[in-house]
Design goal:
The protein has about 180 residues and is of the alpha/beta class. It has 4 helices and 9 strands, in the order H-E-H-E-H-E-E-E-H-E-E-E-E. The protein is globular.
């Protein structure tokens, strides 16, 4: 591992998921999607920025024709807890009518973001809508959201790495970890 990343990993209280664990689970998720969606063209709606690494790794393993749309959506705006308000930048020409849609996100936490996105996508009349996340927190949701697949179920802790950040930092970590409360931000 490059020394610059090693230095950042020292900011973690502990590593929750190693790069090998993440890679194996993403492989398994892709294999399931390849089997279940075989023969279809899939329209992927990916939530960024936290989902960047997960989406890139998963899409490279899909053996299906894929259309990709990325959305910027968040209910955090820089902190470690939700603001309760979901902000989404919807494209003007977003048409999903009669398409098989796969909604991808990094983490299911409160349910606010995924439920808001799912509800809107359903108004666009897709043929089907599947929702997959890399991480699902064990916690009470503020809004329930149908979830078809989760890579890992984790405790209700704030995580960083593999695309997820704290104040714009730690996205580049190859692992997922719990931030040391004493590390500089």
């Amino acid at each position: 591992m490059p020394s610059s990343v090693t230095g950042v990993i020292q900011d973690l209280e502990r590593v929750l998921l190693t790069p090998a664990q993440i890679s194996a689970r993403v492989d398994a998720m892709a294999a399931r999607l390849n089997a279940e969606l075989a023969g279809r063209v899939v329209t992927v709606v990916a939530l960024m920025d936290g989902g960047l690494f997960f989406v890139a790794d998963l899409l490279r393993k899909l053996e299906l024709p894929v259309r990709l749309h990325t959305l910027s959506a968040s209910s955090y705006q820089g902190g470690t807890s939700t603001t309760g308000e979901v902000k989404v930048n919807w494209p003007a020409d977003f048409d999903l009518r009669d398409q098989d849609v796969l909604l991808l996100d990094d983490i299911l936490d409160t349910g606010l973001t995924l439920s808001a996105i799912s509800e809107h996508l359903l108004t666009l009349q897709p043929a089907s809508l599947r929702t997959c996340v890399l991480l699902s927190k064990r916690r009470q949701r503020l809004r329930e959201v149908p979830l078809d697949d989760a890579g890992f179920e984790i405790d209700d802790e704030f995580v960083v790495g593999y695309g997820m950040d704290y104040m714009g930092r730690f996205r580049n970590l190859p692992c997922i970890g719990i931030l040391n409360p004493n590390s500089p931000s």
